[in-house]
Amino acid sequence: MPSPTTENYLKAIYALSERRPATPLVRLGELASELQVTPGTVTTMIRSLATRGLVVYEARKGVKLTEEGRVQALNVLRRHRLIELFLVRIMKMDWSEVHEDAEALEHAVSDRLIERMDAMMGRPTHDPHGDPIPTRAAEMPENRSQPLCDAVPGAYRVDRVNDQDPAFLEWMAESGLRPGQSLVLDENDTRSGVLLLRITGREAPLPIGVNIARHIRVEADGA
Asked: What is the DSSP string of 34-65?
């Protein structure tokens, strides 16, 4: 079984690649920032992963996962997201407080226990934050959503929330912006960086900044 450090690196590379699908390589500086370690530490670890066939490393350019690295990254993502959902649905924890516990448990639980959690919850497809759960065959469901900051005025449904900060998730819940929530984007003013939302069940319109909107992914309502 891969070490927790290896799993964290593979998962981080996958996450950064998913955010910028048009960019083939993840820069090591981005990876260091994501993992909160020094660039030198990242370089040493990436070279080790490359020798094990888990990544392709191009000096001064960046890194990408091999097929084996992608499979391992999706397996740890599957464990993480199923654990988060289990903590929320079964253990009745709030969605804002499960990320750190899942980070620790994802490296400790057995595949047998993960399989039992999956079956117990009815083979769910998404975690509490709307993130898709990879399948047992290490396949990721297609993602059709877009960042709210890139959306044009119209009717949408909240699909995913990309920021795991507890304070941010608490604000999202208080504002009625959980995954599955319908909303209308009335205005997206790129000059001021302010978006104006109307949320079902909320009387007053909600203005939000572009820095918040880029962490909320939406689909056209009815998609």
From this structure: HHT--HHHHHHHHHHHHHTTSEEEETTTEEEE
Query: Residue 158 in 3-state DSSP?
Result: strand
pLDDT in tens, 63-75: 999 999 999 999 9
Interval 104-114: pLDDT, tens: 999 999 999 99
Two tokens at 16?
């950064």
Spatial distance between the Cα atoms of 104 and 92, rounded to a whole number of angstroms: 18
Same CATH topology for 4-65 and 146-220?
A: no
pLDDT of 183 > 90? The answer is yes
For the chain, what are the domain ranges?
A: 4-65, 146-220
The dotted CATH code for 4-65 is 1.10.10.10
Percent of the chain whose predicted confidence (pLDDT) is above 90: 86
d(CA 217, CA 7): 26
Q: Is 172 exposed, middle or buried (0-12, 13-18, 19+ CB in 10 A)?
A: buried
Nearest to 217 by CA among 179, 184, 191: 179
The rounded distance, in Å, linking the Cα atoms of 11 and 73 is 5
Give domain 146-220's CATH architecture.
Answer: Roll (2.30)
Does residue 10 surpass a pLDDT of 80? yes
